[in-house]
Amino acid sequence: MTKVGIDKISFYVPKHYIALSTLAEKQGIDPEKYSRGIGQNKIAMPSHDEDVVTLAAEAAAKIVAEEDAAKIDTVLFATESGIDQSKAAGVYVHELLKLPQRCRVVELKHACYSGTAALQLACGHVTRKPDRKVLVIASDVSRYDLASPAEATQGCGAVAMLVSANPRLLEIEATSGCHTEDIMDFWRPNYRKTPLVDGKFSTIKYLNALSGSWEDYAQQGGRDFNEMAQFCYHLPFTMMGVKAHRKLSSINKAQNDQGLIEPGMIYNREVGNCYAASLYLSLASMLDNMDADLSGRPVGLFSYGSGAVAEFFTAVVQPGYRDRLFREHHRSLLEDRTALSYEDYEAMWHTPDPQDGTSHIMPNAARGQFRLTHIDEHKRHYAAA
Fold first, then answer.
1. Are residues 139 and 177 in the same domain?
2. Is 57 in the same domain as 145?
3. Residue 125 sits in the same domain as residue 236
4. How many separate domains does the chain show?
5. Residue 234 annotated to the active site
6. From the candidates 50, 112, 123, 171, which is the catalytic residue?
7. pTM
8. What are 272-306's pLDDT values in tens digits?
9. Among 50, 58, 80, 107, the one annotated catalytic
């Protein structure tokens, strides 16, 4: 049977961030509440000419540029911070990347889970048509009300993956375990710009969903816990991954080895929550930062989306995978950034949002090649440098 999975993976984050120590100083609290309490250091912040479209295009350009674009017949765009109730954000990306018109583009939504839904759908499509490729993009801007309990768990970023037959990075195995439960732990009605969240309840439900999806995975004949070389979890904040791995280790009566998750938390700690992209930022972090050779080894992945849908599945790392990574590019993105003062952060938080059809020109602040130039007559206009 033909292997199907991730042939390339890359991510993008903006050049601006606010250090959580700066936020803690403004709030008059101990910075360790964030550095140790939730395991986060920084919040990535988009400038006014950046959004889920530009972040996605930047991430995807890195992996599409060297490929035969004619083989991409599907673009799946996963986000929960979409910019339009009708038009898929991926259509803008399709145009910016100059992909062929003989292509389907769909936007998927289910909180932070939709990136996994896109990946699984992509694998199914390529299984049917192994001569085709699917571009999967997860792109989100996590934004909570200023001075709210969740403010420290903001962030943004995009991860792009090229799904193909005979992948050179990761084979996605067919066995997976799922869990769905109708709950209200995190949601954003259409009339709100920021979500509503019950943090403690969401943490409990995340762990319950992990238990349920693992149970289903085991019943489907999945791999033994001890076979996994590493684990990557959805990380709204990295301490959630610590709690998740402790829970899964306990379920399997195994030692709680934090070394099995630490490589996959390095990037997320410096970016913050990027919703649908979070698990896959963790995956990129693990691949880039793991010292030992993972060739031929399975890794466990857990995806959670509030509301709630969860899935546990596995991927096998392919021989020679290190030659396909963008490690130096990723590290330079994180190192070459500018810290914001609290005042600049607050100004950037208030993104222009003309709702009366008037024109608004965006200041040129993005470091990448794609930017939102202006909004006029309710239409968003993008350009490539």
1. no
2. yes
3. no
4. 2
5. yes
6. 112
7. 0.98
8. 999 999 999 999 999 999 999 999 999 999 999 99
9. 80
